[in-house]
Amino acid sequence: MSATGSLRIGRELAEQMARHAVEDYPRECCGALLGREAADEPGAGAAREVLRVVPLANRQDSPRNRFLLAAEDVREAERFAREARCELLGWYHSHPDSPARPSEYDRENAWPWYSYVIVSVARGAPGEMASWRLADDRSAFLPEKIEASGADPHLPASIPR
To answer: Which pTM does this prediction carry?
Structure first.
């Protein structure tokens, strides 16, 4: 399975997503990724840079193992992106006590093009952070390389209590 592009996330934003995941544990948290898409590099896919994360409410009836965004949340994220003069690049959510890999539910409810960052949370502590993009034919998620500035994307910095 080859990677599809890359996603650059600064340490502070990675910590913000991890903190949100810990605060909502044992429920899944969710939010929007705002930023810019760079020109495609030959053979490498699009490079993206996250400039802001926007925490959103998980509106799922079963928030322990799923997340759901309402239409108004998507519109609000798009409005935030316009106001910040950037793009809505995708979404993040957490996987309580599960790996940072998309589930079948995630695949069935995702949209191609967007980046999907997943933060694993084990017993209330942040773990691996991974990013994915859904194939255009919606058959599978493809890994998206995370380029973190100042932090290892697989071991988010410790979260102050």
So the answer is: 0.87
